[in-house]
């Protein structure tokens, strides 16, 4: 049995809400067990959307982050590349810059936090910022001498329902984290706090989608609920 109480989690989220969609249940489970949880957001800016208002502002979304941070009791959070010059344009930023930020330059870098677990988006997402984030994490956590650079022992790529929108075959998660009803409820409640991003069903960011995916992954592990991950490193 994996001891979440002894872990220090660093979650890399391209945008505010990706962390809830991908690993909201795990964050609740780990924090409830006594783990430390740190959130490194990469970017946020003004965003056109399909809401009645038609857009959400960066200030609005930062306010949502603060509410979600209180909800999950994160130990700290940080935005690496704020503003419209970066938001939805991370693919135009040299990977060297994004990887360096994740590896050692951010206040919540791997070097500073020294996490035991890193969670990051999957590279098969259709979203360009998610792809850039995934590739940068892959570079930042490259194998090297553990005496010289911190190596998280567990590195997981989290999934979002929208990741299935691909023109190439996708593989099922190879690691399942069991959730209880409280963790699923906490995940959905957190998504509701991201009011600018939450949608009615049918939508990839609806309550029914989050509930259904947790039921599907749970069924695959023979339990009621779970989140699915792709293990990139598991050093035991």
UniProtKB/TrEMBL annotation:
- A Gene Ontology molecular function term of the record: hydrolase activity, acting on carbon-nitrogen (but not peptide) bonds, in linear amides
Q: Which domain of life is it from?
A: Bacteria
- Give the matching Pfam families: PIG-L
Keywords of this entry: Zinc
SUPFAM superfamilies noted in UniProt: LmbE-like
Q: Name one GO biological process term.
A: glycoside metabolic process
Which PANTHER family did the record assign? N-ACETYLGLUCOSAMINYL-PHOSPHATIDYLINOSITOL DE-N-ACETYLASE, N-ACETYLGLUCOSAMINYL-PHOSPHATIDYLINOSITOL DE-N-ACETYLASE-RELATED
Q: Under which name does UniProt file this protein?
A: Glucosamine-6-phosphate deaminase-like protein
